[in-house]
Give the backbone structure.
Amino acid sequence: MIFPTLLALHSLVRWLVLISLIFILFTSIFGLSSKQPFTQKHNWLRMIAVSIAHLQLILGIWLYSISPLIQYFWQNFGEAVHERFPRFFGMEHSLVMTIAVVLITIGSAKAKRKTTDLEKHKTLLIWMGIALFLILTSIPWSFSPLTSRPLFRSF
């Protein structure tokens, strides 16, 4: 019973991750283009995005540890590594998403330590933009011909 609930929760939180990163990108672009100060609102958005990404990573690790697909992948590694679906979730998705969360964390820390407002906006734009790109390429979208999952899962 925990697996389907966790899977639905992981699917839901992905939207929060995407929304928070997209919002940061827009505010960073606007902040750079209009030379806007880096306010407490920007700092709050940065912290929220990092927190949501970390929550998603924790859910993903938990899901990875109990998933029947991942258990199959590791028990039959020699065969499963040549199968698109198990390899995607057993290696590709988990590795790229972990890297993306690391980039979000590093970018947030670097932006926090910058001295000027423009440097803070630019740092967030670059690091969060790269992380968002990795995330978008590694989500099993419902329209993907390679590995597809539903856009929304019910509890």
Observations:
- Residues 2-138 form one domain.
